[in-house]
Amino acid sequence: MPEYLAKTGYANPSAPDDGIFQFTKRSKGNLFDYYNSHPQEGASFNQVMGGVMAHQASWLSIYPHETLVKTAVAGSPILVDMGGNIGHDLERFRAAHPETADRLVLQDRADVVALAKCPDTVQRMTHDFFTPQPVHGGSQCRETEIGARAYYMHGVLHDWSDEPAIQILEMLRPAMVPGYSKLLVHDHVLPESRPHPQATAYDLTMMVKVSALERSESMWRELLLKAGFAIIKIWTSSLMAQSIIEAEPAE
Asked: Which of 215, 212, 214, 209 is nearest to 33 (CA)?
């Protein structure tokens, strides 16, 4: 890392395919491209990520998840877990609301979704979130098409610097029904000063692995606004190091 930073004038890396990880591995493409072409290392990475997700406090403990069920249009998708790994977070929701299983969608890369722990009643979908969201409603859709009540991303946007993160959000926004669909971003929301050491450790990891970062509240507000979203509320708890940002398409 010191050699790379000296070479780049100690600037924060922001290119997902040209950062510390690529310099060290002498590779091209982003982290996920690398793991796709190195399946043994990719399998180890997926296991680590699955373990991290499995042992975190449940997001249901800080977000009023029951409101999603109560206010969803009958028969429509309730929750789309984007980049949801093998489904740890989605399984927590299903366990709390087992009757909704066929209205839940798990999205990730094909090799990851194939390992999903969700039952067959949950829809498993291969999806690249740099392409348009396939579970959609929005103004360009038929009246009978209803988007999901909520699109949930846990630890997704912190993998990307601002430019690609905005692209992800812009691919999602047209699928959302204004006044109905919600965006739930489950990530660190750092204070403007004196952040927790756990969060700063994650920040350094993001810089090294994916040329990205953890964000403060002001940084999240700016990022989401650029992508056409307005924050409704930031849900926090002393039980969790991360928060859930609830947002919706801005008018």
From this structure: 209
